[in-house]
Specification:
142 residues; Beta-Lactamase; globular; binds flavin mononucleotide
């Protein structure tokens, strides 16, 4: 663990004073069924979400939703993955126990081995500039 300018870093995570958590993992993965119930999450996603498998698997993906995220963003996500099979966008998620983290998510529609529709989200770390732009845009949305 290291401490620097009111930042605490441990296990690839950096905790900023205002609650933001930065991560060093390259990507955070999760998969849902066609209704958005989580069926898989990578260890990197569980770590940044501060969740155990049982907190997330079998739950609606909205368990990680941050209250500041506009409904319009998720309407766009669902409309787009259902119509076109993919969506990309910026998402601020709430961390269990407090804090938050930003991701740039690519959500894709896929088909499981039984022929059922499923969705996969691959998240990477956005730049500070992209986070600022997303924040400004989302402040104008419902
Ligand atoms: C594959 C996939 C990944 C998702 N990942 C997130 C996520 O990380 N955070 C989030 O708030 N919503 C995520 N969603 C959207 C949620 O299903 C949900 O629409 C959103 O949290 C808003 O909640 P609500 O629809 O109950 O209002 C994801 C959806 C899919 C299909």
């Amino acid at each position: 663990m290291s401490k620097n300018n009111n930042e605490i870093s441990t296990d690839g995570l950096t905790f900023l004073e205002d609650g933001e958590v930065l991560y060093s993992d390259l990507y955070l993965l999760s998969e849902t069924d066609e209704k958005g119930i989580v069926e898989y999450a990578s260890d990197s996603f569980l770590k940044i979400a501060n969740m155990r498998v049982e907190d997330l698997i079998g739950q609606p993906h909205s368990v990680v939703r941050h209250p500041e995220m506009p409904r319009a963003a998720f309407k766009s996500l669902w409309d787009s993955v259902q119509a076109k099979g993919f969506w990309t966008g910026y998402v601020k998620n709430a961390r269990k126990g407090g804090g938050y983290y930003w991701v740039y998510a690519t959500v894709l529609r896929s088909i499981d081995k039984n022929g059922k529709t499923k969705y996969v989200s691959i998240r990477v770390k956005p730049s500070r500039e992209d986070i600022k732009k997303a924040q400004e845009l989302y402040a104008t949305l419902d």
